[in-house]
Amino acid sequence: MTMNTERPPGLGELLRYVGELVDVGASRRYRDLGLSYRPRYTPILRAILAGKTTVTEIVSHSRLTQGAVSQTVALMVADGILAREGTGDGRKSSLRLTERGQALLASLRPHWQATFAAIEALETEIGHPLRQILAKAADALERKGFAARLERAAIEQESPADHAD
Questions:
Q1: How many CB atoms lie within 10 A of CB 48?
Q2: What does 20-38 look like in DSSP terms, one character per residue?
Q3: Per-residue confidence (pLDDT) for residue 163, from 0 to 100
Q4: How far is the first Cα of the chain from the last one, in angstroms, to the nearest whole number?
Q5: Is 67 inside a domain boundary?
Q6: What pLDDT, on the 0 to 100 scale, is given for residue 88?
Q7: Which terminal CB of the chain, N or C, has fewer other CB atoms within 10 Å?
Q8: Separation between Cα atoms, residue 148 and residue 146, nearest integer Å
Q9: Which burial class, exposed, middle or buried, applies to 6 when counting CB atoms under 10 A from its CB (0-12, 13-18, 19+)?
Q10: 149 domain residue, yes or no
Q11: Which residue range forms the structural domain that includes residue 111?
């Protein structure tokens, strides 16, 4: 997997590429460990471990979209990792780990410790706290969306002297 270097890549390209490199590496490691597991399951499991039991709670905890969480939860239910239970209000369902999910979790814990060690080593190698930078970028984009930032940049390009702060 190589990136086209004829022109500088944009932010979206770099984010997707880095994400892909991380996911491919994690998937390979899961296979090497003999685990039938998808990297996209990790934020869901981490949210459940933090006590989140509904899709809405997982969305808030993980910063993933509701669509992404719902799709991933459906895969995890189909794979026998999660089970849905009614909450009694008729609208929501609660999620819980199945026995298979609990056994998988026990196998994953050492891998997750190694993952965080690998991320820390990567951050040391590049000389930047990547997770912290990405979290700050996410916070800033939640405060002021990228569409608003693009609109502002376009206006400033049209008449830079009129819009100086």
A1: 22
A2: HHHHHHHHHHHHHTT----
A3: 55
A4: 43
A5: yes
A6: 73
A7: C
A8: 5
A9: exposed
A10: no
A11: 11-127
Structure confidence at residue 160 (pLDDT):
60
Q: What is the pLDDT of residues 73-102, one digit of tens each?
A: 999 999 999 999 987 776 678 999 999 999
CATH code for the domain in which residue 18 is found: 1.10.10.10
Report the alpha-carbon distance of residue 41 to residue 106 in Å, rounded: 14
Count of domains forming the chain: 1
* Residue 6, pLDDT score: 79
Residue type, 35: L
With 0-12 / 13-18 / 19 or more C-beta atoms within 10 angstroms meaning exposed / middle / buried, residue 163 is exposed
Amino acid letter, residue 86: G
Q: Measure Cα distances from 152 to 49, 139, 143, 146, 162 in Å.
A: 41, 19, 15, 10, 12
* Residue 103 DSSP one-character state: H
Residue 39 lies in a domain: yes
